[in-house]
Amino acid sequence: MNALRTPEARFANLPDYPFVPHYVEVDGMRMHYVEEGPQDAAPVLLLHGEPSWSFLYRFMIPPLAAAGHRVIAPDLLGFGKSDKPARQEDYSYAGHVAWMRSFLEALELRNISLFCQDWGSLIGLRVAAENEERFARITLGNGGLPTGDRPLPAAFKAWQLFAKRSPYFPIGKIIDKGTVQDLSDEVIAGYDAPFPSAKYKAGARAFPTLVPTRPDDPASEANRAAWKAFENWNKPFLTCFSDKDPITRGGERPWQKLVPGASGQPHTTIEGAGHFLQEEKGPELADLLIRFIELSS
């Protein structure tokens, strides 16, 4: 598999992102992750989605580490400082799940507190359902686990069509459109940093087409099996969806209803945030996670 590597110079002087890079080999490629906090503490795993990278978690990592947690924020293959398979055909839902499972195995992560959003949840929830022994608790924000059995919002269909057909695919401005407040040019450039040219964007282009939108999608059966696992999930499960995301608004309700571990948890609506709630409400989310871990330990 031919994979591209973003030049390190692209990541110089990023705002609020002083973290030392760490790397592990996954399927012959270099996968980047941020690791902060004491190494002997239980891990807090932060999974980003489309088309962001660990830069999205820059306001959550420091307070979580300061609270004594081992914070790990990987860049999915195709994103951030991780290697980027060059063809859209190199990416699949099952492939991303396998890559993330390999990442957890390489770092020997257990007793994980997972926070996941967007594609971070499509991947993270699958990995958790299929490897429950590695996870202690889950916090889900603005994400889900679609099976293709129910129609997705019109806003998602428009996004899927844009990703497929638009000759212009500006990563930073896409993130900006997914927030309530306008991002600065400096922050937009930070989201653009991993993608020097269009040829680096195969993974970002591929993701929307990989979301299961029909019952016979290649990922549908595995996602249905994951839902079955969560119907018997008794470990703590928290939702924290934002109030201004047109794609996932209301998506927390099935989880609160069907997951036994969600019963009695302090589910929260994050007010004044769009799809990328970590960008707009990072410190608030970090505080929520710290309290959730304390209460459920």
For this structure, the CATH topology is Rossmann fold
Main sheet? 8 strands, mixed
Radius of gyration: 18 Å
Domain count: the total is 1
- Give the N-terminus to C-terminus distance in angstroms: 42 Å
Structural class: alpha/beta
Count of beta strands: 10
Order of helices and strands: EEEEHEEHEHEHHHHHEHEH
> Helical amount among residues, as a percent range?
25-40%
Can you put this structure into words, describing what you see?
This protein has 297 residues and is an alpha/beta fold. The chain has a single domain, classed as Alpha/Beta hydrolase fold, catalytic domain (Rossmann fold), CATH 3.40.50.1820. The protein has 10 helices and 10 strands. An 8-stranded mixed sheet has the order 2-3-5-4-7-8-9-10, with helices on both faces. Strands 1-6 form a two-stranded antiparallel sheet. Strand 9 (237-242), helix 9 (252-258) and strand 10 form a beta-alpha-beta unit. It is globular.
